[in-house]
Specification:
The chain is mostly beta strands. The protein is about 5% helix and about 45% strand. The protein has one helix and 19 strands. It has a five-stranded antiparallel beta sheet, with no helix packed on it. It has a five-stranded antiparallel beta sheet with strand order 9-19-12-16-14, with no helix packed on it. The protein starts with a helix and ends with a strand.
């Protein structure tokens, strides 16, 4: 009798043992500071496949270019097996002066195509849902260029649902450039927020560094001469998860040049996980 009770007690313990949460490798880390960003020590994790991946970063300047990219033309390669049917694809780009970016083809949607700044800068966000027959590159003209210096990133995000895009520009010239984005309203648990930003630099040729908003995980930081050099154009991209519905604080990153002032642009893309 006693032996049976002990066995039943041990067996019931298997059913009341608390779940362990795997910290994973992204989404803002274990902040524990009340920021509202995912704390893997206490929060349920989002689908591990719901994570942004940089498929390609490309650039063009007077001295350096990626592959077939050139003045007035962008070309983003797609390596084999880097995207899959149903994935959300985002192109985030940034070009000097006042050109009009063209979509790669009619299957893409223009979320933003904004010209601003004292010297003139255009930033874009294009989106589409991947099909089973995506090409091995996305390419098109950038019309009415002056210098033509640009940066562009292709992101792949599996298991993505509905999303909302916001942007904000600044008229103040400064260094460091404070890349400030408006607060984001989170409606669904485990929403991912992509933060992308750059500057309309008011002079040319310099080195730079970037910092994302607090607790955001960097995805990209590069200039039109690649790495941390630029002629006229730079951009950074980072992301974080928010476990519960909320309104974020104002999000601020920085773009710092060696000795040139600039004006900020910043974009946020709040992406819900797929149902």
């Amino acid at each position: 009798m006693n032996r049976t009770l002990v066995y039943l007690a041990l067996l019931s313990g298997c059913f009341i043992k608390p779940n362990r949460v795997d910290p994973g490798d992204g989404g803002g880390g274990d902040d524990g500071n009340g920021s509202g960003i995912h704390d893997a020590a206490v929060d349920a994790r989002p689908n591990p496949m719901f994570k942004p991946t940089v498929v390609a970063n490309v650039h063009y300047s007077d001295t350096s270019a990626t592959g077939s990219n050139g003045a007035g033309f962008y070309y983003i390669p797609v390596p084999p097996n880097s995207i899959h049917e149903g994935d959300l694809l985002l192109i985030i780009g940034n070009v000097d002066n006042g050109p009009q970016w063209n979509l790669p083809d009619a299957s893409w949607h223009q979320e933003r195509n904004v010209f601003f700044g004292g010297d003139g800068q255009t930033f874009v966000v294009f989106s589409k849902t991947a099909t089973a027959t995506e090409p091995d590159h996305y390419a098109q003209n950038i019309m009415a260029v002056s210098s033509g210096a640009f940066t562009a990133t292709l992101l792949d995000i599996p298991k993505a649902g509905a999303f909302v895009v916001q942007h904000r520009t600044a008229s103040t010239s400064e260094n460091p450039v404070h890349n400030t984005a408006d607060p984001v309203t989170i409606s669904a648990p485990n929403t991912m927020v992509i933060f992308a930003a750059g500057a309309d630099w008011l002079s040319s040729t310099n080195t730079f560094s970037t910092a994302p908003p607090t607790d955001y995980t960097p995805l990209a930081s590069f200039g039109d001469r690649d790495n941390q050099d630029f002629w006229w154009t730079t951009q950074q991209i980072a992301y974080a998860y928010y476990p519960t519905p909320q309104t974020t604080p104002t999000l601020t990153g920085t773009s710092t040049s060696q000795n040139i002032s600039g004006q900020s642009w910043a974009v946020t893309i709040a992406i819900e996980p797929a149902p």
